[in-house]
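Student:
Attend to each token:
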Amino acid sequence: MKLASFDIFDTCLVRACGQPNSIFDIMGKELFGANDNNKWRDFANERCKAEKRARFKTDNTEVTLKDIYQQADFTNITETNNETLMDIECMIEASVIIGVDSIRTKIASLREQGYSIAFISDMYLSSDVLKQLLIRERMYQEGDSIFVSSEYLVSKSHGLLFNIVKEHYKYAISEWIHFGDNRHSDGKMPLKYGIKANLINHKYTVSEQQLIQLPYIFDNGRNALIASISKAVRLSFSLSPEINFSADYIAPLFVPFVFDILTTANKEGINSLYFIARDGLILYEIAKELGHNFPNISLHYIYLSRSSLYFPALEDIHQLTEIIDENKVADYNLSEIIFNYCGVKIDNKAVSKFKSVSELIKDEQLRELLTKRHNEQRELLFQYFLQTQLATDSAINGIVDLRGTGKTHRMINRLLESKGYRPVKAFYLELGKSRKPQPDNSAYHSIINNERYFGGNAVMLENPPILESVYAVANHSRTVGYKLDEHNRVVPVFEDDIQLELNKKLFSYNKAAVCLWAKLYLATKAYFDNNHNLYVGLSLLKNLLVEPPVYVLKLFSKVQVSETGIEKTYLVKKLSLLEILNRRTNSRGLTWFTGSFSYTFGYFGNSALKLLKHLSGLRHRLL
């Protein structure tokens, strides 16, 4: 017979919390909550010491979970009995375990080649517990075998567990290959017993390594936990740059951000949160995963955009200059601007004689056309607010958006208050300096305000639309208005978008990764340090802007963006010599110089960029 055996932990299965001892931290947090750091740390410490005592006292090469808890004394820590604590440990272990997709694929391939499958582990948990985990992760099938050191009281590390396997198969194994991560137990010892060994190394990515390598003493392992969650999420899917990016950059920022929103909303007694399309879609999906911890908050997704909201929210069309910057009219076709903001198609010849929006609305015919559109959409928009219960006096509502100046918030409240309804509060990741103060009943919360970027963080001011176009990409196009369906309900009208299929693909990857990440964020109790984790997510964004990885730039090269809603440009592209010499971002042709420069020079891009910045700084000093 042919046999393929697999180590279990860190080969077939990985822990989202990283190190095995982190399980005991999670147990302590589960038992004592966030407000008693000493209790849960004392619990974790005693659990570790109990295992050392059990191993010291045994004559065997392995111990069982029961042996460990017989040596544990939690008398001054918790009244929970040891039997219950063992059950809690198994439950938490199961909650943070993730199956590795590449190993799942390898097992399936070897089955097709006629190999019998065995799982071998040096572990104090029982084979029944491990079997259930392997079944859940679609690795174990009926007829497979599991050999666990705690049940045979011998280990792989001493080689004797491999003998047990040979005896089980009555020495009828003609070909045996073994897969595992430990150089000694899964490499040296199998070779000693005539078994072909294949070492498995589930590596951390560069961004994950940067977090792992920070000194433990300074952050109590919090950064390593974030890296471990990202790694577990990556490994649970087939190899994909989209999944890698979502797990390493998007989720570590957006999951703590949404958790912060839910925490704040809960404290302020907000009953419902409305996530604004399109940037809010991925945030909404995350909120649904985290919402189990916030049962008093109902979650909604609402189709709004600059095009569908700003114009109808005005009291009349003479206020049009409040939403259209007259200074930008000269840069773009006036008919395109009117369509973008008002949804009205006007022949370019009809508006070519006008130099401004103020002049245009003085024309009686055009004014009538705009007024008709305004009145229709204003009525439909308000019906939509009633239909979604954003307009209500019986609850306190809040909206969630990604970034901006707060104008969406102001325009929503402008319409609500004009109809006699309660204004809503707002939550943003980032707000610009042109924001306006709001009264307490319609206050906003933001994590960062971009006028406060300075020093090394000034790079964030150059932030291209990565957040909107990649981090928060949606699976539908922009809402440009509303209509009534056959059931007399208000439904959104979407614009045509040539990039929609790509956006749907990116969103599907993002959703899969961030939702699993959010689930593991709860399971590992990482949210106990949510403020710190939010800072880590922002730091990863900053690192991305300063030194973007090559695989990310290749991914970004497919993405088209538009900050005006009129023209689209690629997020990154290959630069010409003239564009490099000019070294400036032009919204009509070049969206992100740093990314485009690095993309142009490939794997040498970041080094070349550092040299360019050095030469530029030297030039300034010389002049």
Summary: The chain has 28 helices and 17 strands.
